[in-house]
Every structure is written in structure tokens, then in C-alpha cells.
Automatic annotation (TrEMBL):
Listed Basic and acidic residues bias regions: 263-272
EC number: 3.6.1.8
Residues in NTP pyrophosphohydrolase MazG-like domain copies: 37-110, 174-236
SUPFAM superfamilies listed in its UniProt record: all-alpha NTP pyrophosphatases
Domain of life: Bacteria
Protein name, entry field: Nucleoside triphosphate pyrophosphohydrolase
Amino acid sequence: MPEDSLITDPNGGMPRLREIMRRLRNPQTGCPWDIEQTFATIAPYTIEEAYEVADAIEREAWDELKGELGDLLFQSVFHSQMAEEAGMFTFEDVADTMSDKMVARHPHVFGDESNAKSAQQQTIDWEQTKAAERAAKAQTGALDGVAVGLPALLRAVKLQKRAARVGFDWPETEQVLDKIAEECAELREAHASGDKAHTEEELGDLLFVMANLARHLGIDPEAALRGANAKFTRRFKGIENALKAAGKRPEESDLAEMDALWDAEKRRERQP
């Protein structure tokens, strides 16, 4: 079959990948796992693959990036195949929609507008274009169109940016810091009451304000938290290595010893 030669063609590119996906989803001869998947069951994998791309970039693991980008691309192919089977749209429709969007949002490149603009002005123009697109979809509320399925921290920042555009924002960073102190006090009070639901609510409020602080400081909270995760992992491995050198495992130690080793690891990292 012609399709078989395409599937084994090492230079088959996108046609090869799409034919592989079509064959995987074939109801008679495909893979049972792939056949039974839906948009909802695949969506978590899509999010995971996007984070793995970000992780490879964060670690500057350029030898891994090609594979991670391929995994993410496969997610688009998978969703598009399911949509085509349902008569909704095709992969070509996806590509054409993105192409139309990029051309429309870059009149300074593909149209008559001058491209002699600062990056800041281009960002303003971009947001105005997106606002017009939302209006065309009858999304008139300031927060309309912020995807519910985004990671919570990212969605918090996007919601706050939208609100800030219409003036709902603290003008000074110090006011955000004051709000954090207020939310910490409310969290302590909720925790002391023993009300788990109220404590969860107050913790959410505190996290939301922390995301707002990151926005005011011009810091990506996801990147900051990834950095903190990496630092914690690095320092805890230092604890494990120190204990191993002493012939011990973490479960054979105690908090006081591990805390001292943690401080030693911090001092070691800060040495010039």
C-alpha cells in the first residue's frame, strides 16, 4: 500500500505523522488505546507535553528539545484527527486558522502598516486586535475568553492583567504586599478554626495575591516557582549525598540533622 511506504519513509515529514495518526485511530486495525481516546482524555497529555517543552528549554537540554517539540506537535495532530473524524475540522483548517490569525495580528509585517514600532507599541496593538476578536465572538466582559483549563497560576495572572486594563488594580506594589500580610492573617485565623473548607479558600486567596505580586514585579510566577523547585531539588540531593557519605539514608536521619545539612548546602552554593 502507498501508505505503508509513507509510514516507513524517514523523510516523510508531516504527511507521514498524520498518516500514522490516522492508522492508529482506524476503528478496525488501529491501536485500541488510541481509538478509545477523546478530547477530554488527551487534554492532560497536551498540557504535560507543553510543560516538558518548557522544562527542556529551562534546562537548556537542546538535544531533548526536538523530541519534546515532536511530542507536542503530535498532540495537535491527535486532536485534529479526532475533530476530522467527528466532522468538525481538519489539520489543514487548524494550520489555516493560525496563519490567518498571524497575518491579521501583524499588519506591520504582512500589511501596509509601518514596522517602525517599539516592541511595547506592538504589544499594545496585539492586545487591541485580540480585544476586537473577542468582541466579534460576543465576549464583551473584561475577563471573557481567559481559558478555564489553563494552569491555575497562569490563569490568575491573565485574569489580573485583564482586570488591570480596565483600572481594577493596585497602583503601588506596596499595596499588594499589604494585601499579602492581610491574607496571611486570614489564613492563620481560618487554620486555627479547624474549618478545612475555609482554610482552603483563604490559601487560594493568598496564592492569588502572590500571583498578583509577581505581575507587579514583572516576574513570571511560573518561572519563579520552577526555579524554586529546581533549587529545592538540588539542595535536597545535597542532603541525601551528605547522608550517604555518612552511611545513612534520609529516613534514618531526623529534621534537626537534615536542616543543618540544608544550611550547609546553602552556604556551599553561595561560596564564590
